[in-house]
Design a protein that fits this description.
Chain lengths: 197, 130
């Protein structure tokens, strides 16, 4: 308050990490567990051209939908803030929400072992877009009924994709997933700088 | 107090929820600037002495100027105003034009693999403290 420092007008640098997965896998729970503020909610209007439904004579009907997302923030230092965006439930809408996807450092995809299929679409999406991601197996109450290898096989996961098991209600579990993502990004950055000969 | 929407409230009926936010933007549905993102950080420029500030500002504009005395991302501003992101961007675009706020674009994404390692290390250090 009352700062006279005129250089401080540009604000901190912001980076963004997505927390994805199907409905009910614990996205907002994880965002809330690691965020320094209670998760905030914001919404956006997305317009979808309805195509592929028979032949509409070249006419594409447009549908506008309101999509809501929850997000949180982690202030790393006065110059650097991490925003965590839990992706909205309706996948077909956020997949085309360019502002949400563009510029993300990477993503955490949460899966629930009882309903692995609800997270397939998110994994496919990040793979096809070339967006780095890690997988978090949300073990509710600390119990997992499947082994890491069973989950990897069921998800047909590339061996290079980190996978961690944990209860995302605990901030440590969310933190470990985010650190694993940053480690993956750092390894890639180094790999880009030192191309194999 | 005379507000520009006064003349629009002819029948007093509830506007459709998709329409109402755009009355705030005077009917504009697309931001003039396409460089604002969800995490573009907005910071209020404190007006110089003697310079009349905020003459053309609507209440929503004023709320943004007030909030961004502490820098805030576009998504945070939209959440605080309880307005859709696209509407919020239009209002922020106005304020940029008025010289009332400055913006800082986010870091480029990780798809090219060329992220700044120092920034990644700083993020990692910050996360470890959680």
């Amino acid at each position: 308050m009352g700062s006279r420092n005129s250089d401080a007008t540009t604000g901190p640098l912001a980076v963004k990490i997505l927390v994805a997965g199907g409905f009910g896998v614990g996205k907002t729970t994880m965002v809330g567990a690691v965020s320094e503020v209670a998760p905030l909610r914001t919404e956006e209007y997305l317009t979808e051209a309805s195509v592929g439904v028979d032949d509409t004579g070249g006419l594409a009907e447009k549908t506008t939908t309101t999509v809501a997302l929850d997000f949180g923030r982690i202030t790393v230092n006065p110059e650097l803030v991490v925003y965590l965006f839990g992706t909205p439930g309706q996948e077909r809408f956020w997949f085309m929400w360019n502002d949400l996807v563009n510029g993300a450092l990477g993503a955490v995809v949460l899966v629930d072992t009882r309903r692995l299929d609800v997270s397939f679409a998110s994994i496919d999406f990040f793979e096809s877009r070339g967006i780095p991601f890690v997988v978090g197996v949300n073990c509710f109450h600390g119990r997992c009924d499947r082994t890491e290898q069973e989950v990897r096989d069921a998800l047909d996961l590339d061996p290079g994709v980190p996978l961690l098991m944990g209860d995302v209600r605990r901030s440590e579990a969310g933190r470990d997933l985010l650190v694993a993502l940053i480690d993956l990004l750092m390894a890639r950055s180094v790999a880009v700088r030192e191309p194999a000969g | 107090m005379n507000h520009w929407t006064d003349s629009l409230e002819s029948d007093g009926e509830e506007e459709d929820s998709l329409v109402r936010p755009y009355t705030i933007t005077r009917g504009r549905t697309a931001p003039q600037r396409d460089d604002l993102t969800l995490i573009t950080v907005v910071t209020t420029v404190e007006p110089e002495e003697g310079r009349p500030a905020g003459r053309r500002l609507e209440p929503e504009h004023r709320a943004i100027v007030e909030q961004c005395r502490e820098p805030a991302a576009v998504a945070e501003i939209a959440a605080e105003l309880d307005l859709p992101v696209s509407v919020t961007k239009i209002l922020i675009g106005d304020l940029v034009e008025f010289g009332a706020v400055t913006t800082r674009p986010p870091l480029a994404d990780g798809r090219s693999g060329g992220l700044n390692v120092e920034i990644l290390q700083a993020v990692r250090d910050g996360l470890q403290k959680l």
